Amino acid sequence: MSEKYTQGETIVAIATAIVPEQGSIGIVRLSGTQAEAIAKTLFHPMGKKQPWESHRILYGHIRHPHTQQVVDEALLLIMKAPRSYTREDVVEFHCHGGIMPVQQVLQLCLELGARLAQPGEFTLRAFLNGRLDLTQAESIAELVGARSLAAATAALAGLMGKLAAPIRQLRAECLDLLAEIEARIDFEEDLPPLNEKEISLKLEQILAKVSSILASAERGKLLRSGLKVAIVGRPNVGKSSLLNAWSRSDRAIVTELPGTTRDVVESQLVVGGIPVQVLDTAGIRETEDLVERLGVERSRQAALSADLVLLTIDAQQGWTKADLEIYEQVQHRPLILVINKIDLVDENQLASLTYPQAITRVARTAAAFNRGIDDLERAILDTVNMGNLQAANLDLAINQRQAAALTRAKISLEQVLLTISQQLPLDFWTIDLRGAIQAFGEITGEEVTESVLDRIFSRFCIGK
Are 280 and 267 in contact (CB under 8 A)? Predict the structure, then answer.
């Protein structure tokens, strides 16, 4: 732990994904007091004498400091403190992609005294040096890991301070109230009495804002982790065709033979800005085939672990006893009934089709002809109460840590109101008000422990 927080020590890491024969550029990043000295030892500019200035790109060769053998042809970017990501001296070697060039440069930096950076240490230094607050630092990790445009938009808003600003404002309002209350405690005889109604009104207004921000927690969770959707049903109702039409690919094998799908087939999609993991499962039925029986059991497990179940039936055959048996196994999960193969029936047959009244969301599809997919996606968004996601305010989409701190702040503020209503002394008011102020400070990083920082930044990649 102490090593991670040593200020000024020069750290180094590979800052780009390294994939053999696929990466065109590989970046090795240095930050710290010796970054520039190490760069001058390794890097030799080509051609005319190029000025060694901050925020200037140099072209040349990286050479072994002892043998002078060329390691790579590269670009060098210099960013001197405080005009850098970490507010320390930062140097980046832009090498050829692949494994060997960047690994050799990294090793030379280590031999010259740099230390291998720990996960998230560059961003941690940016936070400790005051360039970022904690919400912005977390937004960087979320932007890197974003799996949809909506998730990236929310993360970018957080990086620009759209979450920190209202939190700081709430904290400032609580600090003002605390100062006003404590002034009455210390100088009771010199100041007029507190207006309890006015204090309570201000606290209620702060509580309303906290509740509004907390309401974005579920949206934030969906944007970051996505939704797991399982397509279940009897054999040959068109589950695999539905997956293929939805994903616009031939992810699953489609035949007329029942039991073709023997295992769970996955596909990654984005629906209304939400990353969706779609699981096409084996047809659920009793069977003597050992392999198919294992696939059926996996289907049941997938349905039980899914956030949403798409119970698919055949429009021609209608609601059968076998459909009812499957429904009874998954009815406690959020569920949409998908009536597939509507191209094979007329409107009268479709209108007369019956199913349990407890099923309130229904989508009609003809997967073989790519019909009804838009209706299905709308039903999914409505089911998870995210139908207005794209029109929603994506500036606020808090994560689990932020939601926990906000919840503590909310409880503390409610306790202050209760204390006021019970006519307890002013000293009691300040106890829970301080608790709310501390909770707000934990969100932005004004009040945070090393253990919290360690949990947050350990989730980052090493080069970030």
Answer: yes
**Tens of pLDDT, residues 366-383:** 988 889 999 988 888 888
CA distance 197 to 420: 9
Neighbours of 219 (CB within 10 A): 23
pTM (2 decimals)? 0.75
Residue 14 near residue 36 (C-beta atoms within 8 A): no
Q: What's the pLDDT at 439?
A: 94
The residue type found at 217 is: A
Q: DSSP per residue over 8-56, as a string?
A: T--EEEE-S---TTT-SEEEEEEESTTHHHHHHHHEEE-SSPPP--TTE
Distance, CA of 193 to CA of 320 (rounded, Å): 74
Question: Which residue in 316, 309, 261, 256 sits closest to 285, CA to CA?
Answer: 261
**First vs last Cα of the chain: how many Å apart?**
18
**Do residues 184 and 416 touch, judged by C-beta distance below 8 A?**
no
Helix residue spans in 145-188 (DSSP H): 149-159, 164-186
Q: Residue 461: pLDDT above 90?
A: no
Residue type for position 448: V
Residue 339 sits at the vertex; the CA angle it makes with 334 and 341, to the nearest 5 degrees, is 150
Highest mean predicted confidence (pLDDT) among 15-24, 144-153, 242-251, 306-315: 306-315
CA distances from 36 to 78, 266, 358, 417, 429 (A): 8, 48, 68, 56, 53
